[in-house]
Specification:
By secondary structure, this protein is α/β, with parallel strands linked by helices. The protein is built from 17 helices and 14 strands.
């Protein structure tokens, strides 16, 4: 019997076997690679310092296409065409994968093998750098390449509570919530900031995107830019800036107001946003009292437009004493109209200080009612950190919390204001730097940013701190010291 490891050479020396099946040598090479990876696979490191080729990958030059399909369906017939087949062990599942290499696959392997920088490859190919990075990200996602873990982690002194998984304290994505303009077509009664801030010129805004690209590349994180304002689409260079963000491979999203179809189609022609979020503040009468006459109907018409254009839609509500009783009825109205509905508690900041917050003693019961309704309404999402207190008491699995990691202020997101000020969170005064004078790296790793990441010392002994931490903006609105006192709604 011929050893499977020597079968390709044996078949090459006996051409009579190839007379009827001329692709047998190529098929034997693939089978040999599969056998090696099953019986004696090279170790795959859990972490790497930089992108590298999966050591459990073999690239086989072949003269026939369609061979991977024959491994599972012998009725398939290959065609004579030179190419490459990739055989590899997938890092996360240890599954043996056999695929025909695409041009993008081979490019990704070459870029890493030859240590070619994404920007260099983009310049040489005459394409945006995001095109190159997307090719590399795809290769990492499918296991052809290994990528280093995110460097953006909670500090070593951050409370771990009941959580042992290190990934709970590490974010794979960094979001820049960019308030590109203060100009707005609404004047809501709870607006955080109606001040007149100077807007960055387009050239300076593009420089911000370049610095953000470097920061996220250096820290091995995906990047999302969420454009907001004001109304971000009223920024005079919105389309140009949106295109620049897309060209760098950034995920994009919008927190804004209803806009005409042609403006949304212009955005779609550049890049489909991950989501488009608008706001409602209750049923029609109360909503229009807060946001202006006719706003309620405008939102519903706009949600229909987003659905027609296949854009993921989100509705955010700012929870107050006056609209708490309307939330569940509004959620029912939105059941078939929106992809996601959720709420934030009122932060009594700016003009929001004139509105009444929910009474803290009434809040736990509201969370219970909301969770019960959400169990049968697919558009309702649990966002507030204190849902995890309810779930903890019920021994239910935790949700990520407000931003995926409890409070994510200055951890997995920051807010950039129109004039270059960077804040840990937009909903309260929380300046941590200025992008016109500092880099994102300098701002993110500053002492004040670390202070915001740590949150309130009053939470340090809470066993669910990594998925909670309350809301600093709400605490601030109640006159609390956000670094030493509990969120007034905490019912631990």
């Amino acid at each position: 019997m011929v050893d499977v490891l020597r079968l390709p050479e044996y078949l090459e020396q006996h051409p009579e076997f190839q007379a009827q099946y001329p692709y047998l040598v190529d098929l034997a090479k693939i089978e040999r690679s599969c056998y090696r990876l099953k019986t004696d696979p090279p170790p795959i490191p859990e972490n790497v310092a930089q992108r590298s080729v999966n050591p459990a990958l073999e690239c086989i030059g072949v003269d026939w296409s369609g061979l991977p399909d024959m491994l599972t369906d012998t009725r398939r017939k290959p065609e004579r065409r030179q190419g490459h087949v990739l055989v590899y062990r997938k890092p996360d599942t240890n599954e043996i994968i056999v695929i025909e290499a695409s041009g993008h696959d081979l490019l990704a392997l070459k870029l890493i093998t030859d240590s070619i920088d994404s920007r260099q490859a983009a310049d040489e190919g005459g394409v945006p750098v995001g095109v190159v990075d997307d090719i590399l990200y795809s290769a990492v996602y499918r296991g052809l390449l290994l990528a280093p873990k995110s460097k953006l982690m909670r500090g070593p002194d951050f409370p771990r509570g009941v959580f042992t998984d290190d990934d709970r304290f590490r974010t794979p994505t960094f979001t820049l919530q960019w308030h590109i303009t203060q100009v707005c077509d609404l004047h809501c009664r709870h607006c955080y900031d109606r001040s007149d801030r100077k807007t960055l010129e387009l050239g300076e805004a593009i420089r911000v995107l370049d610095d953000l690209y470097d920061f996220c590349a250096d820290n091995n994180v995906f990047t999302q830019v969420t454009f907001t304002g004001g109304n971000p689409l009223l920024y005079p260079h919105f389309n140009e800036l949106y295109r620049e963000a897309a060209d760098r491979g950034f995920l994009t999203a919008v927190l804004g107001n209803p806009m005409p179809r042609h403006r949304i189609e212009e955005m779609l022609s550049i890049q489909k946003p991950e989501f488009y979020q608008v706001s409602l503040e209750g049923l029609a009468e109360h909503n229009d009292y807060i946001r202006g006459k006719g706003h309620f109907e405008r939102i519903f018409r706009f949600l229909d437009l987003l659905a027609e254009l296949d854009i993921y839609s989100m509705v955010m509500l700012t929870l107050t004493r006056d609209n708490m009783g309307e939330v569940l009825e509004l959620a029912e109205l939105l059941r078939e109209r929106v992809d996601l509905f959720t709420f934030n508690r009122l932060a009594m900041v700016g003009e929001g200080a004139d509105l009444a917050s929910v009474r803290p003693e009434e809040y736990p019961a509201f969370l219970e009612r909301y969770m019960e309704a959400a169990a049968t309404n697919p558009c309702m999402r649990l966002k507030d950190n204190f849902f995890n207190l309810v779930r903890h008491k019920k021994a239910m699995p935790y949700i990520g919390g407000c931003a995926g990691y409890g409070c994510g202020a200055a951890f997995n997101f920051v807010s950039l204001l129109p004039d270059g000020e960077v804040h840990a969170c937009r909903k309260l005064p929380s300046p941590i730097g200025n992008i016109s004078r500092q880099t994102f790296s300098e701002i993110y790793h500053s002492e004040i940013a670390r202070h915001y990441r740590a949150g309130s010392s009053a939470c340090k002994d809470c066993e669910i701190r990594p998925v909670c931490g309350g809301c600093p903006a709400v605490s601030y609105g109640f006159g609390k010291d956000i670094f030493t006192e509990l969120d007034p709604y905490c019912f631990r």
